[in-house]
């Protein structure tokens, strides 16, 4: 089961119950973007107990990701130069990023009006790793440069953060329809089937994902030193250009590990939970703060994690002063 709006098996009988505070006391059947999917907005007394809220949150996030993904797919190959603007060095946003984000926010806010939001294109970055309450961390189009060039992969990434933990994750790879989901304590899934990290035992047998510096080049020498070590110690390095997908591929065993620095919370929040719930291991680069704070991450199947961390020391050494600058 891929991310097709009409066949998402999370929605029993194609009905999705969304929790929301209503001014009336009876359920209301409302239109959704998909003809085969109806939404019942339920008043408070019909809401499930708290142990079902994470599952409901995941299901709403899936609906938001599918809605955004359909919009992105509709506009693939149609973007012109005047629809792209630069946010910074080699960092771009398109009208499709912004349109996808509006659709995600609309879906989530209708269901959870009291939640907070940290979205790449419309809210300021908050550096605190923890948050008092529920906060959605959203990348409406991870891999914008890929998208503008017609090169896969690119994805929608949505995570729910509660306190210092990410509790729900959805990553939707738009070009393939692969739908990765996770709920803390409930495991990770790809298209409805459970996934696990790889069983690769050594770096020599491993395939590693990474990302290249493209915004801040002050630590490029440290990255190149680390990259050299991985090239010599592993079967190979890959750089698809979307961190959410890199992490999802670690979670399902396609990669054995992934490392990168200079990332934002929306790049990694969902992917971090996917890896953890698939049995993998997550850390920052050696000596740096947690990934959501430092923007650095090492993700692995666990068996090769310490070996990866050792090879990442040149990057950590170079990046540490930059992070504190």
How much is the radius of gyration in Å?
19 Å
Kindly estimate the percentage of residues that lie in beta strands according to DSSP.
Answer: 25-35%
**Strand sequence of the main sheet, in spatial order?**
6-7-8-9-10-11-12
How far apart lie the N and C ends?
Answer: 46 Å
Q: What shape does the CA trace take?
A: globular
* SSE pattern: EEEHEEHEEHEEEEEEHEHEHEHEHH
Query: Which whole number gives the mean pLDDT?
Result: 83
Low-confidence stretches are 5-15, 17-47
Estimate the helix proportion, in percent: 25-40%
Per DSSP E runs of 2 or more residues, the count of β-strands stands at 17
Q: Sheet with the most strands?
A: 7 strands, mixed
DSSP helix count? Answer: 9
User: Structural class of the secondary structure composition?
Assistant: alpha+beta
Describe it for me?
The protein has a seven-stranded mixed beta sheet, with helices on both faces. α1 (about 55-75) runs antiparallel to α2 (about 95-110), α4 packs antiparallel against α9 (about 315-325) and α5 (about 245-250) packs parallel to α6 (about 265-275). It has about 325 residues and is an alpha+beta fold. The chain is built from nine helices and 17 strands. It starts with 14 loop residues before the first strand and ends with a helix.
